[in-house]
Amino acid sequence: MTVATSSRAQKEVIARYLGETADNIDSLPFKLHDFGFRGVSSVETAGIGGCAHLTSFLGSDTVAAITLARKYYNCPMAAYSIPASEHSTIITWGKNDEVEAYRNILTQFPTGLVACVSDSFDIFNACENHWGEELRDAVIARGRDGILVVRPDSGDPVTVVLKVLEILGAKYGTVTNSKGYKQLPPYLRVIQGDGISHETIGDVLEAMKVANWSAENVAFGEGGSLLQKVHRDTQKCAFKVSSAEVAGVLVNVYKEPITDKGKISKKGRLTLELQNGQYVTVQEGQGDASKDILQTVFEDGRLLIDHSLDEIRARAEIDLVKEYKQRKTS
To answer: Mean pLDDT, to the nearest integer, of 81-93?
Structure first.
C-alpha cells in the first residue's frame, strides 16, 4: 500500500507538469521507472513493492515484480524496459576512451530506445563534447529509427538536469511546443535516476517549468526511495484489530495513549463510505453496511475475489488521466 500510494502521488505530480508544459500526457506511463531491485532486502520485497509501483506505471527493471504480477494478478506482461548501460560498462573502457564506450552503445543498439549513463567522469563534458560534438552526427542519424536517453546519475538533481538540458539544447537545437515550452529533438531525451523521491521530483519539474523546459524532455528512475526507504510509519499505515466478540457481545478494541494522540486507533466495526465526494471511515458500528465500499478479499485463508492487475490499475487511475482520455474519445 505504501509503495502504491507513493507511486500514484508521484504520477499526479508528473501528470500535472505534463499537462501544463507538454502537448499531451501520452508518455506518462513510462515517466517513473523502477530502479529499486538491487537495493531492497529480498527478492520477495522487490516483487511485492515493485508490483505495487506497477499499479500506476509501466516501466520497471524489477523482474521480480513482473513475475509476481504474472503469477498472482493475471497479467502476462506488467512492465517494460529498454537497453541501458551501467557504470561498469562505461568505465571498463577507461576515462580516455569514454567516448568510444558511448559509440559502442550506439553501434550495439542501432535502433529503438537506449539509455546511456553519462556521469562516470564528467556529465557536462560528456554532454558538451562526447554527445554534443564527437557523436552528434551519429545520434542524429540514429534518430531516424531510435531515441537516445542520456542519464545523469549524481549531483543535485535540479541543478544537473537543468544544465544537461541547456547543453543538449544548445548542441542539438530545440522546438517550441503548443504550450510554449522547449523540447529537445524527438530522438533525444534525459532520464534522471539519482536522488529521486516524492519530495524531489516536483522540485525538478518546477525548475524545468520556470526555465521554460517541457516535462516531456525528462523521465525519472527511482530506486531506494521507491522500494526500500519505506516502512509502516511512512504513511502511518498498519493493520489493527478494531472489534472483537467477547461472550457473544461485540466490544470496541482500540488504543488511546495519552502520550501520543496520533496513535489513537479506530474503534469497533468499521465501514468505508463515500460522503459528499470524500471517503469517510465510520466507526463503532454506526455505518451503513449497504454503503460500505470495502470488500472482503481474503477470509480464513481463502481468496474470495481474484482481482487482476488491470482491474487494480483502472481503480487506481488518477483523475487527470481519466479526464484526458475522456476528452480524446469525445
So the answer is: 97
Angle at the Cα of 61 (from 56 to 62), degrees rounded to 5? 80
Residue pointed to by grid coordinates 523521465:
219
CA 251 to chain centre: 42
Residue 220 cell numbers, joined: 525519472
Give 237's pLDDT tier (boundaries 50, 70, 90). confident
- The H-or-E segment that residue 303 falls in is strand 302-303
3-class state of residue 88 by DSSP: helix
> What is the pLDDT, as a whole number, of residue 188?
98
Scanning the chain, the segments in alpha helix (DSSP H) are 2-21, 43-53, 63-72, 87-91, 98-108, 123-125, 136-142, 157-172, 201-210, 224-227, 309-316, 319-329
Mean pLDDT within 224-231: 90
Beta 182-183 vs 175-176: how paired, if at all? Answer: antiparallel
Distance from C-alpha of 267 to C-alpha of 275, rounded to nearest angstrom: 19
The CA distance from 240 to 242, in Å, is 6
> What is the SS3 assignment for 140?
helix
- Cβ atoms 56, 37 nearer than 8 A: no
Q: Is the separation of the CB atoms in 23 and 177 below 8 Å?
A: yes
The rounded mean pLDDT for the chain is 96
pLDDT, tens digit (0-9, with 9 covering 90-100), for 36-69: 999 999 999 999 999 999 999 999 999 999 999 9
Handedness of CA 41, 47, 51, 57 (dihedral sign): positive
pLDDT attached to residue 194: 94
Give CA–CA dist 101/95, Å, rounded: 10
State how far the Cα of 46 lies from the Cα of 62, in Å rounded to an integer. 7
CA distance 100 to 195: 28
Query: Residue 29 carries which DSSP code?
Result: G
* Other Cβ atoms within 10 Å of 20 Cβ, number: 13
